[in-house]
Design brief:
- By secondary structure, the chain is α/β, with parallel strands linked by helices.
- The protein has one domain: Rossmann fold (3-Layer(aba) Sandwich), CATH 3.40.50.1000.
- Helices cover 39% and strands 17% of the residues.
- The strands form two sheets. Strands 5-4-1-6-7-8 form a six-stranded parallel sheet. It has a two-stranded antiparallel ribbon with strand order 2-3.
- Helix 4 links the parallel strand 4 and strand 5.
- It is globular.
- 34% of the residues are buried.
C-alpha cells in the first residue's frame, strides 16, 4: 500500500448520482456540432427566468439516487487515510436547495475533504478547470464527454477519467469507464 496522498475529484450528476438521462447529453452535443442549436459546442445553457430555473430544477431531478458502488467508495475512504476525495460540480446557483439536500446525503460519513459547487454560475468547463488546478487533483471523474475532453486537453496535472455511456461507446479515449463501480474498483487497485 502506498502512503502517498491520492487526490480524486468527482462530478456530481451522472457520476456520484446515477442519472439515466445523461445519455441525452450525447444527443445534445451532437446537435450542437450539427448546428441545430444556436450555441457553441462548449457553451452551456444558463437558466435566467423563474420558469427556466424551475424547468432546470425539474430536469436535475433525474439525478435521483446514489450511483452503484458509492457505498464501496465510502468504505475505501474510511479505510485508507491516504485517499482524499472531493466533489467538483458545475451545478448552477438556481439548484442550491437540491444541492444542499444531496450534499448531506453524499457526505453522511464525512468522506469528502471538500465539496465545491458552481454557485457563481461560471461556464461549467471553466469552473471545473479552475478547481482542478486549485485542488491539484491527481484524477477527476467526469461524465460529460465535451467537458472531459476539454479538461484533458487544457490542463496537464490531472488525469481525467470519463464515465461514458452506451451512445458514446465508440469514442476512443484512454481513460474511459462504463460504470461508477468500475471506477471505484480502479481506485481500490491503487491502494493495494
Amino acid at each position: 500500500m502506498t502512503n502517498k496522498i491520492i487526490k480524486i475529484g468527482f462530478d456530481l450528476d451522472g457520476v456520484i448520482l446515477d442519472n439515466p438521462s445523461r445519455m441525452l447529453r450525447s444527443l445534445i452535443s451532437r446537435s450542437k456540432k450539427a448546428h441545430l442549436f444556436p450555441r457553441k459546442e462548449l457553451e452551456f445553457y444558463h437558466p435566467s427566468s423563474s420558469l427556466e430555473k424551475l424547468l432546470w430544477s425539474l430536469v436535475h431531478k433525474s439525478s435521483y439516487k446514489l450511483a452503484d458502488g458509492f457505498a464501496d467508495l465510502e468504505k475505501l475512504v474510511l479505510e485508507h487515510k491516504n485517499l482524499e476525495i472531493y466533489v467538483v460540480s458545475a451545478r448552477f446557483a438556481c439548484l442550491k436547495s437540491d444541492t444542499v439536500k444531496w450534499k448531506k446525503i453524499i457526505n453522511r460519513k464525512n468522506i469528502f475533504k471538500a465539496i465545491y459547487f458552481n454557485d457563481q454560475d461560471e461556464q461549467p468547463h471553466f469552473f471545473k478547470k479552475r478547481m482542478l488546478e486549485k485542488l491539484a487533483l491527481d484524477y477527476f471523474i467526469e461524465d460529460n464527454w465535451d467537458v472531459a475532453s476539454f479538461l484533458a486537453k487544457n490542463q496537464q496535472k490531472t488525469q481525467v477519467w470519463w464515465l461514458s455511456n452506451f451512445l458514446d461507446r465508440t469514442i476512443n479515449y484512454p481513460h474511459k469507464f462504463f460504470s461508477f463501480k468500475t471506477i471505484v474498483s480502479k481506485i481500490a487497485s491503487f491502494l493495494l
